Amino acid sequence: MNRLFAIVILSAVAISVAAAVIPWMTSTMTWRPEILKILEADLYTNNSDGRWHLRIVAANWGETAAEIYKVEIHGIETIELSPPKTIAPGTQKEIDIELEKDYAEGAMYTIRLYLKSGSVYPVLERVVTA
After folding, report:
1. Which domain of life is it from (predicted)?
2. Do 57 and 126 contact (CB within 8 A), yes or no?
3. Is 5 helix (H, G, I), strand (E, B) or coil?
4. How many CB atoms are located within 10 Å of the residue 61 CB?
5. Predicted confidence band at 23 (pLDDT cuts at 50, 70, 90)?
């Protein structure tokens, strides 16, 4: 009989702990990513220095800051951003990046944004308007 009471009590304690811990874990450990919406992306030559630049206008619709640490123009160059460009949740920001290589007018390039969260935004195909 004592064994039965011990099992019932241990089961009740285990269920109570599980009922308290599971909601806490799901609310604190849920991944809340950034959701970056690219509004504009342009490659252009800067009139003052004659160099190529990449201009990105993006909005973060997510719940965490979007930290862009690397930009790649596929097959041509990769730019490490130091410090990373940060877009706070619920905000829109324009980012201008000076490029090292030359680009052709009228050509289409794939631009990839790499975020510290591990997200990659790869579908930014744009025709250079210069």
Report:
1. Archaea
2. no
3. helix
4. 14
5. low
